[in-house]
User: Which sequence fits this backbone?
């Protein structure tokens, strides 16, 4: 009888370079999804990176809303992978259902952004991201692109553009389009405040906190005076401009797979008084991987 086959992977042969397309590098695109937006899927299909090199991974909550989103997602997957044009088809797709309790209750934007809801919510999100990451990261993965389900507009060359900087962790600037009732015209505003550079005030605040307390960004009663990338955007600024970051958001984030393989994950607890994606940035830094951001390279979040 033949010995059982053994798959050998030499991680040294998996390149992670500024030219992923030229080197045919595999991308793992991960999305925690509470709601399905058609614009998100349409935007995915427009990504110009070869789809045969992209694996998609989703995690959805086991709630009524999560069930509805799963149904919608599966419908679109069937369309794209079975009857759609061959060039649209992705290498593979994995869907996970989140089965830890209690499941997060469905919350609108105002409710989920309330400060007293944040720690529980962010911890649950961190666990969802970790489950998704640890069940999908493979030996041939070069890059992990985190893309939230409500990021509905990115440049088609997103993967190539972000990877070109050859940074361990890199975040574009997440904005939101809205109708400006004063100007009576469409407008845009910064959305993601989790991309930041640390401040002496935040460092001092953290020193006075209990071991389980976390710092949060974007709340008036917790003024951190951190430098937010959301506000570093310049209309005439260079798209390639990079800034070092101490905290990152997960709306859109490209990570070298080695950063995750080294053990950087999303702490669902206070890690240096940071949680989830912000804690991830800190962990990456402690492992020697410096995160960066692109203040003038924009992606857009859905407007609820
Ligand atoms: P916000 O934009 O910072 O308010 O955060 P969101 O509520 O948009 O959550 C970030 C991402 O996680 C989005 O892609 C959501 O669809 C998704 N999400 C939100 N809550 C859950 C949840 O309970 N479970 C899972 N699996 N995904 C979630
Ligand atoms: Mn969102």
Assistant:
């Amino acid at each position: 009888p033949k010995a059982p086959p053994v798959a050998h992977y030499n991680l040294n042969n998996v390149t992670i370079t500024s030219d992923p397309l030229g080197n045919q590098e595999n991308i793992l695109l991960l999305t925690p999804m509470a709601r399905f937006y058609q614009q998100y899927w349409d935007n995915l299909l427009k990504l110009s990176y070869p789809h045969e090199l992209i694996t998609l991974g989703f995690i959805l909550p086991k709630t009524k809303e999560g069930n509805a989103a799963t149904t919608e997602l599966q419908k679109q997957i069937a369309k794209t992978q079975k009857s759609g044009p061959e060039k649209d088809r992705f290498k593979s797709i994995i869907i996970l259902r989140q089965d830890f309790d209690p499941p997060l209750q469905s919350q609108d934007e105002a409710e989920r952004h309330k400060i007293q809801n944040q720690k529980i919510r962010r911890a649950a999100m961190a666990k969802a991201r970790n489950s998704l990451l640890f069940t999908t990261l493979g030996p041939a993965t070069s890059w992990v692109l985190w893309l939230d389900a409500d990021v509905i507009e990115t440049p088609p060359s997103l993967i190539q553009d972000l990877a070109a900087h050859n940074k361990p962790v890199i975040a574009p600037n997440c904005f939101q389009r809205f109708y400006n009732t004063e100007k009576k015209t469409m407008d845009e505003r910064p959305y993601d405040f989790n991309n930041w550079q640390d401040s002496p005030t935040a460092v001092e605040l953290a020193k006075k906190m209990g071991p389980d307390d976390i710092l949060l960004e974007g709340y008036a009663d917790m003024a951190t005076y951190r430098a937010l990338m959301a506000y570093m955007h310049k209309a005439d600024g260079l798209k390639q401009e990079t800034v070092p970051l101490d905290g990152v958001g997960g709306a859109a984030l490209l990570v070298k797979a080695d950063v995750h393989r080294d053990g950087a994950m999303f702490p669902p607890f206070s890690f240096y008084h940071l949680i989830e994606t912000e804690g991830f940035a800190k962990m990456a830094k402690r492992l020697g991987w410096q995160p960066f951001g692109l203040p003038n390279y924009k992606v857009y979040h859905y407007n609820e």
